[in-house]
């Protein structure tokens, strides 16, 4: 039992790191633009398929696929912002319309991936040397450890960007008070486009890591990660990137530890029970941060 618990903790941290990146990219998008991106999971899975194509067709390993995915998805997100977002500002309820519009985008993206890759689950048949690493009494997949290391590096880089750079501070200010930052002369359109592109880049990178951590993915996997992203965002606090990072780890640990002590069917609902409890007892999120709207 001790080995199972230890294995659950390690896997919970690794999976939780992935969930944290899924959530933080969505919370950046909502915090700055107030956009409910229901297609976020499809963006993530598109990153997995990009890594698959790069490896299968060009022999590019997943580690090199990470920066490529970041660049490709940043550029795609920047362009997609100007195609989709300005039209939302003309509606009477931009948040509701963003939900409906991105729900359509999610269906279209899943259909496109289905057309290109069919319904079969895909996997990246790439093996690290050694295949596993011994951590005390347990063995952990090297691929998972590499993905966890990348997750930590991306999280640290994102934290430094948000708290130490001028564009990052501008993003945080836009989350806290978008009206005030415009009075200070910040170009909110360019800042919003950057936030959308950054969220897309993080989603693409997360997709590559998912291809390393999980055994398989398919065009319909996006809906699962969209749900996870919304759970993490609510747990951490709407528009709170640091809260999303912490909530992702909490959710991952809860999910993995539940598989140790509970039947598989029950383990799947533990995260949702935590979500419901948070909404009831701490609706502002686990960090309790309330941003001025």
Describe the structure.
The chain is 75% helix and 3% strand. The chain has one domain (2-119, 134-281): ABC transporter involved in vitamin B12 uptake, BtuC (Orthogonal Bundle). It is an all-alpha fold and 293 residues long. The mean pLDDT is 88. The longest helix is centred in the first third of the chain and has 32 residues, at 2-33. It has 12 helices and 2 strands.
Features:
293 residues, single chain, ABC transporter involved in vitamin B12 uptake, BtuC, 12 helices, two-stranded antiparallel sheet, mainly alpha, 2 strands
The main β sheet shows up as: 2 strands, antiparallel
Work out the helix count: 12
CATH domain class name: Mainly Alpha
CATH topology: ABC transporter involved in vitamin B12 uptake, BtuC
The percentage of residues in β strands lies in under 5%
Task: Kindly name the structural category.
Answer: mainly alpha
Q: Work out the number of β strands.
A: 2
CA radius of gyration is 19 Å
Shape: globular
